[in-house]
User: Fold these one by one.
Assistant:
Number 1:
Amino acid sequence: MTDDTLSRSSGRNVLRLERRLRHPQEKVWRAITDPEHLVHWFPSAVRMEPTAGATMTFDFGEGVTMSGEITDLDPPRLFAFTWDVDHLRWELHADGEGTLLVLVHTFDDRYGGASFASGWNACVALLDELLTTGETHTSGRFEQVHEDYVVKLGLDHGEAEDTPDGWRMRYERQLVRPADAAWRLLSGSTEAAPGGPVPEGFAVPDFPPGPVTEAKSGALLEYGWERGTVRVELGEGTGHGARLIVTQTGPPGDEDAKATALEAWRTKIESFARGLPAS
């Protein structure tokens, strides 16, 4: 994880992972390009002809498939392909008696970066196990690794902007549990309904909430505070959990309130996200 990075290029997000494997380059090459090897460590079964420009089919079982295309094939150094709208580039470099594997994943959903990183981290660990022992076992829980990646990749910070009507703060966070589990933890024993009190999990210090103005169980809650509004939404994420989006507004010129809201929600969301797997 130490050398893993998330950057921007041509308007897209670029995740880069490096792993040193204690196996010869040719052996690693077979494991990342042969469907009979891929099925043991890659997220799906793969059907393909090993030719640049050839179509790839990613089979997740139960009739669920996705398509891609091999964009680069240079044995035993480079294997690159599209996966739906994403692009994956696998580079192999001789490293003494072993191999340096470099994965570059290009995608659009920035806040899914930690999910992708923790997923590939687990997959490459399985790849290494396959190369070492000839078999793989189910990977352990990845939730803590995911949350560590959120911080490492800089995805734990909110954004704020000034508008003619005042400031607007926004946080977006990929979670490791579905929306119903997140909603239960946020709402506790309080049933959120328009006109009723705001459950403690949906509020932060220094901004006492007014009554709920809009609520949809498992999906959204909105309320006013003295000088603005707060909206908490739970939607679809990367497929490994819900996506949390928090938006708060405030009056023009109140920089202190904006800064306080950014820090308060950062603390709240970090604590909530890390506590969610145990809920």
Number 2:
Amino acid sequence: MTETRWNQSNHERIDTSEIQQRRVVIENSHGEKLVGVLHDTGSTETVVICHGIHSSKDRIPMLTIANVFESAKISSFRFDFAGNGESQGSFQYGNYRREAEDLRSVLQHLRGENREISAIIGHSKGGSVVLLYAAKYKDVQTVVNISGRFFLERGMEWRLGKDYFNKIKENGFIDVRNRKGKFEYRVTEESLMDRLTTNTHEACLSIHENCSACNRSIRIRQIHKESQTVSN
């Protein structure tokens, strides 16, 4: 499909006729199928975009990021973590480290197609995931965290309700509903503890330690909008 867009930064027309979007299915380490979309500009340089909690690759932030890289003629890949969007698996409230392994499967697949991963970008929960990935694997030069929560033990009352810890201890789970009362997802004690035991600060320190042993430094970008509440 041919389309012409405006690049608002320099008011130039962008011809997208050479950009191809291709649906890609990748199997993770648990045998689940992860579904993603490759924005192929013809360049093997590729950035990978990770979504936030209970979200998907098709939400506006991920589409916007992909479009920005299209404008720069850089390929990108946005995908659904297991249990989200079109991907197989069950949604879990925690799963930070497991989602980092999903990201690992994606990067290995793309590198198998001779793509150079120039950056991993995470929005909201995805921001925490890319930091955990970088701390463990240190094989991506640029890591971008957009509005990822740093202290994961904070910010849960508005989503889970007051006294959520005692309630989940008593019942084994909490059902999260939207403002209209419609069920969205279940938070189990196991998934809650996964979040509470994920230490983003420790991961960030590990990235710096790893950098001193690398031949090239890892650039970390943390982007936050102070005036906006981030639900992750």
Number 3:
Amino acid sequence: DSTEANSRRGEERRRGEARMRGGGGGMMDDGGVEHAQIPNSFGHELRACLRCRLVKTYDQFRENGCENCPFLDMDKDRDNVVSCTTANFTGIISLMDPNRSWAARWLRIGRFIPGCYTLAVSEELPEEYQGMCQDNNVQYFPPKRP
């Protein structure tokens, strides 16, 4: 039915426009996150998660946490945002389909949700939070040392 197809295309366009505005992460029908928030500013307030390297603004991490690392509770405790993110990172890559991206596999971020990621962070996740990763059966790869 062409009316149903037009309605579906309109909904897809609205979701795409919301993503471009950097709104909240998209939600799937089952309540899971479809994509991470897109940074709504590209200034000095950008930060990268030390575990998954997702890039958002400080305020976005504070308000919504990290979509890949909800167990770090960044949305519940501002100190966790400071401890688990860094403003010291190199480059940004935007991933639309991490499962199929050779770059995502090369960067070890192929299992994360679509979003903006840094190429590299130079700081390690504090030991206390590395323990939280282990407790949640989540892998953590420390940054490579030159």
